[in-house]
Amino acid sequence: MTSRPQDASPITYASAGVDVEAGDKAVELMKDAIKATHNANVLGGVGGFAGLYDVSALLTYRKPLLATSTDGVGTKVAIAQAMDIHDTIGFDLVGMVVDDIVVVGAEPLYMTDYIACGKVVPERIADIVRGIAAACEVAGTALVGGETAEHPGLLGEHEYDVAGAATGVVEADALLGPDRVRDCDVVIGMASSGIHSNGYSLVRRVINHAGWALDRQVSELGRTLGEELLEPTRVYAADCLDLARYLPAAGGAGVRGFSHVTGGGLAANLARVLPKGLMATVDRSTWELPPVFKLIAELGGVPQPDLERTLNLGVGMVAIVAEESADAALARLNERGLPAWVMGRVGSVDSSLTGPDFVQGAKGVDGGAVHLVNSYA
Questions:
Q1: Disulfide engineering: 122 pairs with which of 25, 41, 100, 262, CB 3.0-4.6 Å?
Q2: What sign has the CA pseudo-torsion 339, 67, 347, 194?
Q3: Is residue 167 domain-shared with residue 236, that is, in the same domain?
Q4: Model pTM?
Q5: Which residues form the PurM-like N-terminal domain (predicted)?
Q6: Same domain as 333, residue 189
């Protein structure tokens, strides 16, 4: 029979590094923020084994299609941890998830989150979830559940990572995709709020190489470097869904498609939503690079092709609309406080094009092409 030292203290879950009471306190601190995202379709309260959402409304659909997406925030969490600011990272998580769903025209109905951490600090976990809930409110999405897991020995005491998943619905005949895009359609860019949540491995490498501290005041940015890098992702879901509904109601042709500019940059993500045989010519001179992207380029000597394959460079979402609907689309987006502009047009693929300014097919999608022309304003 195996024996243990007589003077050894009992080994408990808490002594192994997992504090169940801290987890319970975190739930209490976040309850109100989660409830604020709930509507009449959400059943039950916070803390159930599963989130419940009443989908009776789908009975009114002719052919409802469910859309789902999952994502995380990436290494931007390292900036939040270094600055000990945790109530904004939720916007990055929600934006990465729900804005992928609206690309197909689907309305994100509900979302769940997952937080893994080295040690549960109730106030920190509550701050993270409050940010997620606030972003869900902006998107019009219910936060119906989540999980916090304590992983001592795997993650450091102040380390955490976040992930989330959402489900949406779209009527089959309203599904957006490459098949709707036509020759002569107009490409509209929607401004990003900053770097969003992609490319932070490059960004962090650049600032570390330059030896810049996060509390450094940067005149070009008008604030500290850390404040700029932690700027929350703009959540486009409500604006995109509004535009998709508005244009037909205004008597014009509906939205042809959207492209969420995330990992891979503008050209690669736009090419994914274009059909084979068509190409979007995007004019860089139609917008100016925001200061943070100029700073990263200069500090790191980052080549322009690498910047364009990694960062959004000021464009977070793209809408493709019929030429006759372009003015109405711009007016509607600007009316909602979202800076937008015509950045290009769709035409036939020029098979003679090559080089870093030309992208055809991306991320496993054998689709259309994008040609970037001119220099940034």
A1: 25
A2: positive
A3: no
A4: 0.91
A5: 64-170
A6: yes
